[in-house]
Write a structure and sequence with these properties.
Structural class: alpha/beta
Largest sheet: 5 strands, antiparallel
CATH architecture of the largest domain: 3-Layer(aba) Sandwich
Number of strands: 15
CATH superfamily of the largest domain: P-loop containing nucleotide triphosphate hydrolases
Oligomer: single chain
Number of helices: 44
Strand order of the largest sheet: 4-3-2-1-8
CATH topology of the largest domain: Rossmann fold
Strand content: 5-15%
């Protein structure tokens, strides 16, 4: 016969209260939190008597000071639970200002229980868990269920509000069938005294046990059972929870334990699963609702909004705002649920605008949720209050870091003991350790605070009056770090330097913001701006350069050092130039740099100014002036120890000569530039003068070689320059190669697949790094490609609008866009508009002596005139183009002109000199036979020789949709 014991039960209305277990109504459990249950027991045991507010608060919050309204919230929950019974009776009366009294009749009786009785096959808490899988947690639940098959102690660890309990209950429900003796839930959230943990476990799992030390009896009771125990919210008593788990697992071989805690128990055999945030979308323009909903955080937020508003469908126009909310709230499920409520009042945009004060905004949790989940602040308070004083001190000071930090930064900002404290804070889920952060050195760990934790700790730091000292220490650390790196930027491999310093960009911005906003920190702001400039340049963060240099120059405090003034002016000049501000103001900035450099004897700054002026005048189409500036730069470089400057001088001269139409001179100078650049620094080791000169020289050489007929060699140089740019990882260099060479060359050779690939990369890089000019070029290339592919059905108006958006039409490489736009218009059957483009470009090229493209513009004008019905002028234009291309040594332009002439003679049924000219030119090509131009020439030669290709002689790869002669 099993042993029997007795326990007290209180009956009132339809309820039966078992103080050590649960509240039942009609045999069904009533969902009550731990605090509400404790308050009910206290009131029922003294039914008819007033129980004071202070006594009740001490019972519910034994070691935490809370506001009075917390007790009112718990009493409201309790009344709500009791009022869901089958009668309308009142149970609890309020004595205002004093306390509460249980007023319903209560019957107290003792009932027998059998010692063999255990928890119900499924704990009420588990049975009441959501019927559907928590949003975004399906894979986690499956993984945890599988882990429980292999391990007996599994802990779900994570920050507050991450949904650990929700996931644990879902896991328990999914595996309940494995445990014939049930699933028991032990909630430790309200426990502060670890000695009470065994007694609470016994009360939940075997309420018949009454002993001063219940653990041996509980272990014996569970010894023969196959059961899962969920230890929930163990963080207040981790040591006691660990001891309980180890004892039960040692004495009960059929027992498995699933733990939720904000830190691991560090118990024997424990398997830790870190529960992270829900996935959030990256920042991106044009985010659609469908793409946003691929991320669990967005799905949860939308789901909660729908529940709050009575229905909600995410629209494309709201997708970016919702994604911003999810990112700002770190994908934390509790925060997202709380944020859905205020949408009804403020709208989505209003919630985004108020997230800087997130703790005041996110205050309406579910009525049935635990106190710590009623507001976002309460969730973080819960974790913060469990920290030691030194841990709180370190966490507060870590709030000044933005974007993470490494261990080396800790002593300067958070004190010498910070490293040990951070390890504890990681364990307690208040600091995130990124073991393999993107871009960081192999094996290095970076740490960060979730934005919500950072905002909370920042508030605490400010309230304690410690923000100014911490922020100053932070700024001093990063100033020293960057100044120490200055000698290494031109001698260490760029990728190595970016791996070391690139992750600190957000910290540098944070430090600059503080210096700018703090009186007396003007010199520090200027020094930090200059120290950060090499990093910004190599990351192509020209907006940062432009903004910070402008702010530094605008400060009212006089410069203590004239050279600092000079270098900040030069930095702003280059930033203006690189962001395409090529106006008279930028010219005046560079003139001022030259004047100061001459006065102070700073030849390096003078070289920067000459380069800046060369870029501006090159982009404006002042080509003769650029050649003079390039020679001035070469003379200055000869007096300067900079090893890369001579290579840059040769590249500047070569580019000017090439655009003026002297391709042979341009090739010689560019090859010399490539040779000097390779001698000056190994590939990938140095970015001098803001771009990688070796890569740019190689990409420029690719275009020159193509024009001179060395088609394959040109393609090889282009591929090599793109590969080197990819290895280097410097966005401005890569965008220059893509925009000036790769996209245009792919279109010239008829490789539309490569052109699309290059265009996508150009758009992505330019958008990410704020390189506006190259982004506009990318959009224009994109529309040109769409028109080429769509033909007569193309949206040519969109292409023309995009072409008109390019800010300065004088850039010599702009002719590539004009040429391809005109070709696309011709293919789409609009030769008149195309002729307008060509005529404007032709006049501008003649005015600027932009000889490199004149032969092709002449040929294109002839093509378009013929397409429009003119059969006379085209031949003269082809012959002029042929003569000018021959004078320039532009073999590829010559071939195109002769191919157009040959097709014209065929269409007019007139045999002239085209066959002989074509045969001679074709024979001069020793490579490039797979390109569209040479294939077209081969087809024509086959026709002239009486071969079988006569039906295809007018079908070039880019033949007009209307039957014209346009060739790509």
């Amino acid at each position: 016969m099993p042993d029997t014991a007795s326990e007290v039960v209180y009956r009132f209305g339809p309820f039966s209260l078992y103080p050590s277990r649960h509240l039942l109504t009609a045999g069904r459990p009533v969902a009550l939190g731990g605090r509400a249950m404790g308050l009910l027991v206290a009131l029922v045991e003294r039914a008819g008597q007033e129980v004071g507010r202070d006594e009740l608060m001490a019972l519910a919050w034994p070691s935490t000071h809370v506001a009075d309204n917390n007790l009112r919230v718990q009493m409201t929950k309790l009344r709500d639970a009791l009022n869901r019974g089958d009668d309308s009776q009142a149970y609890i009366a309020t004595n205002p200002g004093r306390g509460y009294r249980f007023i319903a009749p209560v019957l107290r009786e003792m009932v027998g229980i059998t010692a063999g009785t255990t928890a119900s096959p499924l704990s009420p808490a588990v049975a009441a868990s959501p019927g559907r899988t928590p949003v975004g947690r399906a894979e986690v639940i499956v993984a945890l269920a599988a882990k429980l098959e292999r391990h007996r102690l599994v802990s779900i660890v994570g920050p507050g509000g991450m949904g650990k309990t929700t996931v644990a209950l879902a896991v328990a429900a999914s595996v309940a069938g494995r445990y014939p003796d049930g699933v028991g839930l032990i909630d430790l959230a309200a426990v502060r005294d670890g000695t009470l943990v065994p007694g609470l476990a016994a009360a939940r799992l075997a309420p018949h046990i009454h002993a001063d030390d219940p653990l041996p009896a509980l272990t014996a009771f569970l010894k023969t059972r196959r059961m899962l125990v969920v230890l929930d919210s163990c963080e207040p008593v981790t040591m006691a929870a660990a001891g309980l788990a180890e004892a039960l697992l040692a004495g009960a071989p059929g027992l498995d334990i699933l733990v939720t805690s904000r830190e691991p128990l560090r118990a024997e055999g424990e398997q830790v699963h870190r529960l992270g945030p829900l996935a959030v979308p990256d920042r991106a323009d044009g985010l659609t609702a469908a793409r946003a909903l691929e991320h669990a955080a967005v799905r949860l937020f939308v789901d909660r909004m729908a529940a709050s508003l009575g229905g909600f469908d995410l629209r494309d126009e709201d997708a970016s705002l919702v994604a911003e909310i999810c990112r700002r709230l770190d994908g934390i499920p509790l925060a997202l649920e709380l944020a859905a409520g205020p949408v009804e009042v403020y709208g989505i945009a209003g919630v985004v605008a108020r997230l800087d004060d997130r703790f005041a905004l996110l205050v309406r949790g579910r009525r049935t949720a635990a106190d710590r989940h009623q507001t976002l602040r309460a969730a973080v308070d819960w974790s913060y209050n469990l920290l030691s004083s030194p841990e709180r001190h370190v966490l507060d000071r870590l709030s000044v870091f933005d974007g993470g930090f490494g261990l080396t930064a800790l002593p300067a900002v958070a004190g010498m003991m910070a490293e040990a404290m951070v390890a504890d804070l990681v364990a307690k889920s208040l600091v995130v350790a990124d073991l393999n952060p993107a871009g960081a050195p192999a094996g290095e760990v970076r740490y960060r605070l979730l934005d919500t934790i950072r905002a909370y700790a920042g508030e605490r730091l400010a309230a304690a009056g410690g923000h100014a000292a911490a922020a100053q220490a932070h700024a001093r650390h990063y100033l020293g770090l960057l100044q120490g790196a200055l000698p290494n930027w031109d001698v260490q491999p760029v990728r190595d330097m970016l791996v070391r310093y690139g992750p600190e960009v957000d910290n540098i911005r944070q430090a600059l913001d503080w210096c700018l906003a703090t009186e007396g920190q003007e010199d520090a702001f200027r020094a930090l701006t200059l120290a950060a400039a090499p990093l910004w340049m190599r990351l192509s963060l020209w907006k940062d350069c432009r903004q910070r240099a402008g702010q530094a120059l605008a400060l009212a405090v006089p410069f203590a050092d004239e050279r600092q003034h000079l270098h900040l002016t030069a930095l702003r000049g280059m930033a203006l130039t690189m962001t395409n501000a090529i106006d008279d103001h930028t010219v005046a900035t560079w003139d001022a740099v030259r004047t100061m450099a001459a006065r102070l004897g700073d030849p390096g700054s003078d070289l920067q100014a000459l380069l800046g002026l060369w870029v501006i005048h090159f982009n404006r189409g002042h080509l003769r002036h650029t050649l003079a500036l390039a020679h001035d730069f070469q003379a200055a470089a000869a007096r300067n120890p900079d090893r890369v400057a001579p290579a840059l001088a040769e590249r500047m001269i070569g580019a000017s000569l090439h655009i003026l139409g002297d391709h042979e001179g341009g090739r010689i100078r560019t090859e010399r530039a490539l040779e000097l650049a390779e001698m000056a620094a190994p590939p990938g080791q140095s970015i001098r003068f803001h771009l990688d000169q070796r890569i740019l020289a190689q990409s420029t050489l690719a275009g020159i070689l193509w024009l001179q007929g060395a088609v394959d060699h040109g393609q090889d140089h282009l591929r090599q320059s793109l590969q080197a740019a990819d290895v280097l990882g410097h966005a401005a260099t890569t965008c220059t190669v893509l925009g000036q060479s790769a996209c245009a060359m792919a279109l010239l050779t008829g490789d539309l697949t490569a052109a699309q690939r290059y265009c996508r990369l150009l758009l992505s890089l330019a958008e990410r790094h704020g390189l506006q000019l190259w982004h506009q070029w990318g959009l224009c290339f994109d529309l040109i490609l769409k028109v080429k592919i769509a033909g007569a059905h193309a949206d040519t108006d969109a292409m023309l609008r995009r072409l008109a958006d390019i800010p300065d039409l004088s850039h010599p490489r702009y002719m590539a866009l004009v040429r391809e736009s005109a070709l696309a218009l011709g293919r789409a059957g609009d030769p008149t508009t195309a002729l307008g483009l060509i005529d404007t470009a032709f006049e501008r090229s003649r005015r600027n002596e932009e000889g490199w493209c004149l032969p092709e513009l002449m040929r294109l004008r002839g093509e378009l005139l013929f397409q429009r019905g003119d059969g006379v002028e085209p031949e003269a234009l082809y012959r002029r183009a042929l003569a000018l291309a021959a004078e320039q040594g532009a073999l590829s332009w010559q071939l195109r002109a002769v191919v157009s002439l040959a097709r014209l003679q065929i269409r007019l049924d007139r045999v002239g000199d085209a066959p002989a000219l074509l045969a001679d030119l074709y024979a001069r090509f020793s490579e490039g036979r797979d390109t569209s131009d040479l294939k077209a020439a081969e087809t024509l030669l086959l026709h002239f020789s009486g071969g079988r290709a006569s039906g295809r002689v007018l079908d070039g790869p880019a033949r007009s949709a209307e039957g014209g002669l346009l060739t790509a």
